[in-house]
Amino acid sequence: MMTRPPSRLSRPTRPARVALLSALLPMAVLAGCASPPVRFYTLGAPAIATGAVPVTASPLATTAPVVDVGRVVLPDYLDGQDIVVRAGNQIERSASGRWASRLSVGATDLITARLAQARTDLFVSDQPQPLPATWRLTVNISRLDVTRDGAAALNADWSIVPHDPHLPILHDRASLTQSGSAATDGAVATLTQALLDQLADRIVAGWPKG
């Protein structure tokens, strides 16, 4: 009996090859246009305020005046994780950069840390405390703009509210500016932090003595 030679695999017809290439082309285009990885940025506030007196080791742990830092208020279009820049009356959101947390949370952490660093005689916290605070700090930021040409501006007002009703409530406000590069998300984050550091310095400078 004669055996038949093994048959060769038939080559796809031209229409089949065209259909296969058409199916693979979109995937190749998508692979070539893959977005860069998203990077996350913080405002640089340390988890534990450097220079602050540790509560467990401090003789002031039970007697230090307590400062309750309320969450910073920001315009709605800013209070998210998007890093944004202003171009005239337009807001441009970064496709590759995000804040590690909502901007209001990061700003609150930074101001809390800066106040704690500067005033080690106080117990400064933005977390709920079991007893009423000696002072309550509220901060309202009405403007926080960084433009493409590197001009940044911040308008804010704040109040230092004593627990003692016989003491006056202290109000203050500031209009701050900063300039630098805004060419990258990291540069925008740096400009934003510089403005908030200025704001924290103003709050510290006006804090009641003693």
Automatic annotation (TrEMBL):
InterPro entries: ABC_trans_aux. Residues 1-31 form the signal peptide. The keyword Signal applies. It comes from the Bacteria. Pfam families: ABC_trans_aux (PF03886). Gene3D superfamilies: ABC-type transport auxiliary lipoprotein component. Residues 54-204 form the ABC-type transport auxiliary lipoprotein component domain. PROSITE patterns: PROKAR_LIPOPROTEIN (PS51257). Keywords: Signal. This is Membrane integrity-associated transporter subunit PqiC. It comes from Gluconacetobacter azotocaptans. The lineage of its organism: Bacteria, Pseudomonadati, Pseudomonadota, Alphaproteobacteria, Acetobacterales.
